[in-house]
Amino acid sequence: MERISRFRAMLFLALFAFVLVLFAGRLFVLQIVETDGDTDNAQVYSTVTTVRAARGDILDRNGNVLVGNRASYNLVFNHYVIKSYAERNEALYRLVQKCRELGITYSDHFPVTRERPFEYTYTQLNTSWQNNFQLFMSDIGLDSDVTAPLLVEKMRSRYGLPAEWSDEDARAVIGFRYEFDLRGITNLPTYTFLEDVTDQQLSAILELNTPGLQVEASTVREYHTNFGAHILGYLGGMDDAEWAKFKEEGYSMDAYVGQSGFEEAFEKYLHGIDGTRYDEVNRQGTTTKSYYLPGKEPVAGNNVETTIDIDIQQVAEEALEDVVLWARDPEKNVKAQESDKEGQDAQGGAVVVMECKTGNILACASYPTYNLATMHEDWKEIEENPYNPFFNRAFGAEYPPGSTFKMCTLIAAMENKNSKGEIIHPYGTEIKDEGVWDELEGFAPTCLAWTSGRYTHGVIDASLALCYSCNYFFYELGYLMNEEMPVETAKSLGLGVPTGIELLEKNGKLNTRERKKEVYGSGVNANFSAGDRVLGAIGQGEYRFTPLQLCVYAATLANKGTRMKATFLSRVVSSDYRTLIYENKPVVESQMNLAGTTIDSYWKGMRKVVTTPGGTADKYFGGIDDGLEGDEDGVWPLKGEVIVYAKTGTAEHASGGSDHGAFVCFAHRKDETEPDIAVAIFGEKIAHGSTLAPVAEKILLTYYEMDAASEMTAFENQAS
């Protein structure tokens, strides 16, 4: 009995060891030779291969698939089959020639350029592939300091390549043979020669009957929209840092992972679980047996429903492009004919649209942009564009807010007390605009009214100061406050602090002593003075915020001091849309207990901006013809139905040229009191914040005219 137990134990250990070896690598190969019949025909190779799982879909809030998958085919090599083929070099040579004939570009990891003069491309490989090359060199007994041309010559000799072949042909075949050799000394997955092969390519290549070359079913990312490139993101191979992270999660070294946008942010949801397949292949490369190991079928990734509304996203992108191109065109931009500081040098901009009560981002546009579906074909053109289409200005750029900051200044003044215990700016207090503010010696900034026309706004209260964007009024408030008051208020309102989004974002800059030292180092310019407080009160100085932060700020103003965490994630559902995996809930980031009089002051002021003659955006949402396409008789279609609150901003900058422009607003229906959405727009060198108002018009029009039936959720829509 003891001997039987020992035998069973030994048998179990042997089987266990076999299983461990079987799963130790991505591809483990056993050669099985059957003794009956012709040996060449009876030889069978068994392989255990990792099969990539399909990636999950990315959807908008209404169930529209923005990024999905389509079926495709890859060409992969069973290296044991091709290595046992006597005329393998000639077969690979024919394959190379066919690829050139078809204009096919493929890659290998042999770290030498494809053409003379041969040079190493070693540094372009990640650490794992560099290590593989070192293993190869050690295996064949070569020093790593051999020159690239000499290495090619040695590989020609090693592989017995004909002398009459050109160097380029020899290098191409060497790349194949190198990939096959690597798989003999490492646990690398099968060599994928081509991905996403077209029908024409597949037919032409298969006619060659290259031994070991097999067709493998796969999927590739498919884009169902031309919009949202900066937020949807794209996939790519892993660098060293990514591989160090993802290999612990079971990823293969050649797996594609999200490199930007949602693809990167929601990788853990979108990436599925790879499967393990057993195949038997004969010497002709024909698969004779294939099945998934028990419990090892591939599991598709989950689907991610985002907060984006693709209809609003499209409108935001198109309207932003229209206004930038309009500003650049002197035939359309009449003011540009009169001055070279009126937007002819407009560079780009960004738009963010957010639900006030949830923090859900409905649109996030950056201009210029690009098309994800044709990104690789257009890569050179995109890279050479001087306006940098790859740059996401919505939350990757930091801009001076200009006068859009004035609500923050007003709130700080009305919610804080001076050293005497007095409210700095009590409700209803009026200030007389005298044109030139001269409280500080050697520093005399002016109001725009004085600069442009030598007139003043006279005696005005807070709401009118916002309406006319009176700099003098806010200079006075900045002077009366200490330096911490507006900064702390800004952070509470969402400015200069992280918004909470799932994607990488800039944090912004605040107008502080520390910031001035960072910018100017030492010397007189690094000193923070009362003048810095005064300029900071109108959104100048060292304040720098992202358009996303400006939108959070506008939403917080709409929420009367409640700041919501910004998010792109609505929920995650299973690959078949039938199971809810995760549902995101609104999160309150901070809460300001603002006095009713404070709220009343900035609400009234922002309302007057669009309703009072002389308000900085009065013509756009009123009855004056603003030239907006689609308006009847020059009247905004939703006038009287939707109540809009807005503020424009214009910001000078050190680079010269036209001023930057900013615009923020929030809105609600006339029979409601709680705002629905907030919009923030920034234009680089657009000249005036008011220039951006038509963009907001179109966005609000789209939002409020959408059919309520279209608001069915993605989960409900797809699962049905």
Describe this structure as you would to a colleague.
With 720 residues, the chain is of the alpha+beta class. 36% of the residues lie in helices and 18% in strands. The protein starts with a helix and ends with a helix. 41% of the residues are buried. The N terminus and C terminus are likely disordered. The protein has three domains: 157 residues, Penicillin-binding protein 2a (Domain 2) (Alpha-Beta Complex); 133 residues, no CATH class; 406 residues, DD-peptidase/beta-lactamase superfamily (Beta-lactamase), CATH 3.40.710. A hairpin with a 5-residue loop joins strand 3 and strand 4. It is built from 27 helices and 22 strands. The strands form six sheets. Strands 3, 4, 5, 6, 11, 17 and 18 form a seven-stranded mixed beta sheet that branches. A five-stranded antiparallel beta sheet has the order 13-12-22-21-20. Strands 1-2-9-10 form a four-stranded antiparallel beta sheet, covered by helices on one side. The radius of gyration is 33 Å and the shape is elongated.
Largest sheet: 7 strands, mixed
Name the overall outline. Answer: elongated
Report helical residue fraction: 25-40%
Low-confidence stretches: 1-41, 623-633, 707-720
CATH class category label of the largest domain: Alpha Beta
Mean pLDDT over the residues: 87
Distance from N terminus to C terminus (CA atoms, Å) equals 61 Å
Under the CATH scheme, the architecture of the largest domain is 3-Layer(aba) Sandwich
Number of helices: 27
Q: How many domains would you count in the coordinates?
A: 3
Strand segment count: 22
What structural class should be given to the helix and strand makeup?
alpha+beta
Radius of gyration: 33 Å
For CATH, the homologous superfamily of the largest domain is named as: DD-peptidase/beta-lactamase superfamily
Strand content: 15-25%
Report the oligomer. single chain
At CATH level 3, the topology of the largest domain is: Beta-lactamase
